Amino acid sequence: MISRARHLLAAALGGALLVLPALTGIANAAASAAAGTTASAAAKVQSISLAKTAADVKRVADYWKPEKFKHADSYSPATPGTAAAKPTSAGGAAGPAAPGATRTTAVAKRAAGQLTAPALPRKGAPTGATMGKVFFRFGDKEYWCSASSVAARNRSVVATAGHCAYDPRQAKAADYWIFVPNPGPNGEQPMGIYVASSISLHEDWVGRGDYDYDYAFVTVHRGFSWVSKNGQYVMQDIGRLQDNVGGLGLELNRKPGTYSAASFGYPAGAQPDGSRPYDGKSLKMCREGRTIWNTAPPLDLQKGVQLQACDFSAGTSGGPWVIGYDQERRIGSLSGVNSLTWDRNGDKRYDAVSSPYFDTVTGAVYQRAATQNTPAKIT
Fold it and tell me: Residues of the signal sequence (predicted)?
């Protein structure tokens, strides 16, 4: 899906803004600087419309009839590469090569922390359903990735990898894009299906496939379930995503080395040695581990974050990195998404995964998705 030149180093797995108090002249200046940073970040966001109307939703839904999911195992886990190599930061917690590589101002750095808090479902649904799979098509081929629901003002936002929503080589967004929370091992959709309304991305992923921005926040329509009526499948509206499954919080500007995170996804692809320890049918977790900086200049990755001791393979692209994961309620805050996977020691087994650094610009992309409106009815 990405040009062959990018296959050299890695394989893909696939609320209000924070405002500083304005109580003094100094604080007012800081707030003005923060506003300028926010405005500059917002200017780099691109939104791409997909299914905008009820008729559009019906067209996508008809493509994903229940029998289609029976063949989900035959679809390809989306990946921008197939080779692995030792990342440049494998020796330790090195920072970006250049002082400005993190691309955040002093004000933005002080705004590190939670942008939006985790949210539990409203309707008494079981917790732990914020994570799932996205299915989509490029050309005439079906793909899938991992993804998660994120708490948002419109209660309708999904986070995933940029390469799970837009292919910069083709300059084309994915078609027939849907999110299925907590899918069953045989293609079941117990929490419904959510059709994408629009995709929000950073302009440098859209324009040149810069892996510093390999993330996407997707605004989805109200969900639906297929019900059998008079021998035919009929769409039944089940409400908004966050009301049904809850949403992860969102953390920004957290410096690698100062926090740990757990990574989640549905691994299915082969390891470099050809073995397949996972089948992609169930959610897996790389337990909470330390984070370090990671750079890979051939992929334009200047501010990646690496998570140690993780053997994820293709299929986990877009799966969430979670800070403060609550094992009992199965919820926490999003701090990254699976983007690239690494064989650090050359033993032909993946042993680390990396994410773009989630900073103020990431927050602007999320905010664009969180403020998009969708129709009140889809059926």
Answer: 1-29
> Tokens 């995170």 identify what position?
261
The residue whose two tokens read 């200017």 is 43
User: pLDDT by residue (tens digit) across 185-226?
Assistant: 988 999 999 999 999 999 999 999 999 999 999 999 999 999
The model's pTM: 0.84
Q: In what order do the strands lie in the sheet with 331-337?
A: 11-12, 340-342, 352-356, 301-308, 284-296, 260-265, 320-326, 331-337, 249-252, 113-116
pLDDT band per the 50, 70, 90 thresholds, residue 275:
very high
* Rounded to 5°, angle at Cα 300 from 113 and 365: 40
Q: What does each C-alpha distance from 282 to 73, 188, 194, 268, 276 come to in angstroms?
A: 12, 12, 19, 10, 14
**Sole residue written with tokens 């995933």:** 160
Decide which of 83 and 292 is more confident.
292
Give the span between the Cα atoms of 360 and 342, in whole angstroms: 26
What's the CATH number of domain 4-16+45-370, 3.10.180.10, 2.40.110.10, 2.40.10.120, 3.30.250.10? 2.40.10.120
Q: Computed over its alpha carbons, how large is the radius of gyration of the chain?
A: 20
Q: Which of 25-29, 74-78, 145-149 has the lowest mean pLDDT?
A: 25-29
